[in-house]
Specification:
42% of the residues lie in helices and 18% in strands. The protein is α/β, with parallel strands linked by helices.
């Protein structure tokens, strides 16, 4: 059983007593560590108005991480395209590609990444496009970030050239992300790499991968299907510690699934002291079955089997280990330990 390549998906978690500045500093330190460990890529998600998530602006975080790393690919997991004008996304990622040539991934998602109120506020700005135009917006971005740019054709017959940056020498790699059949089929139709949001979705992984692989059409960018898996992971020196460190994020996810008010992540001690209610307990138990939690040896073996089962050679870890009281606020010992144990 071969060992899959490892990557990181970071939501920049915020815990009790921690400021946004400290949360971001801890993620920058983790990105540097992932680079030193030889991991393949480091992606930032886009979420809005969530007390426990400081990953609101992937391009800003990508630029910061790229400046602090040397070889690891950095990117978005993903930019939620309905929230943004395609030209702005293309310009941002063309600039990132110029800052870190050959190291930028543009992962694009179709969901808003927030609640309906925030989605409404984002769309009030006038910069967002209709979600129904998602396929054409993806194509527009793919064209605009290329060195030759895109051509806009007017109904009057005229043409106008549009480039995301004046003299591009390369382009970011574009990935489609999703948790439903839609994105899998769209990625297949356009010959794009695809990632199923397995760390968030409860079901549908097998069907999405089958649709993507069976319907894939080769493109100039990609001759064969390319995908990897995401997974929530906690590794520690003992199984007991791993389960304890997993609990704060599990409780936060249970609150989200139960439509309860969100708050900053608890520390491990706070999570252990607060017994889950009758509605949360089954949600937490279901997560324990899907997440990868245990010692380094146990989690490495499980991830290798998971990769083999689904025919992929890379897994993107969402390292969801919580922190104990007293651990540094500008560091992330539990998440760092997870990466260390899985690379060892």
């Amino acid at each position: 059983m071969s060992t899959p390549a490892l990557s990181v998906l970071d939501l920049v978690p915020v815990r009790s007593g921690q400021t946004s500045a400290q949360a971001i500093a801890s993620s920058m330190a983790l990105a540097r560590h992932a680079d030193a460990l030889g991991l393949a890529r480091y992606w930032f998600a886009e979420h809005h108005n969530m007390p426990s998530v400081a990953s609101t602006t992937p391009p800003v975080l990508i630029a910061a991480a790229a400046a602090r790393t040397e070889r690891i690919r950095v990117g978005s997991g993903g930019v939620m395209l309905p929230n943004h004008a395609p030209l702005i996304v293309a310009e941002q990622f063309a600039a990132l590609e110029a800052l870190a040539p050959g190291r930028i991934d543009l992962g694009i998602g179709r969901a808003p990444g927030s609640d309906p109120v925030i989605t409404h506020l984002l769309r009030q700005s006038g910069t967002t496009g209709d979600v129904e135009r998602f396929p054409s917006h993806v194509q527009d971005i793919a064209a605009m970030v290329q060195p030759d740019g895109a051509t806009v054709r007017f109904t009057s017959g005229g043409e106008y050239g549009v480039k995301a940056t004046p003299v591009a020498s390369g382009a970011p790699a574009i990935w489609l992300l999703g948790s439903s059949d839609y994105s899998a089929q769209l990625a297949a139709a356009h010959g794009l790499p695809y990632v199923f949001a397995n760390h968030f979705a409860g079901t549908g992984l097998e069907r999405a991968l089958d649709l993507y692989r069976s319907q894939f059409r080769a493109s100039e960018a990609l001759s064969a299907p390319l995908t990897f898996l995401t997974a929530n992971v906690v590794a520690a020196s003992t199984a007991e510690e791993a389960n304890d460190r997993a609990l704060p994020q599990m409780r936060a996810m249970a609150r989200l699934r139960g439509n309860k008010p969100m708050r900053v992540l608890e520390t491990v001690e706070e999570a252990l002291a607060a017994a889950p209610d009758a509605a949360e307990q089954p949600l937490i138990e279901a997560m324990r079955q899907r997440w990868f939690i245990g010692t380094g040896d146990e989690v490495r073996a499980s991830l290798a089997a998971f990769a083999t089962q689904h025919g992929v050679d890379e897994i993107m870890l969402s390292p969801v280990a919580g922190s104990y009281d007293g651990e540094p606020l500008d560091e992330t010992p539990g998440r760092t330990q997870t990466l260390d144990l899985l690379v060892a």
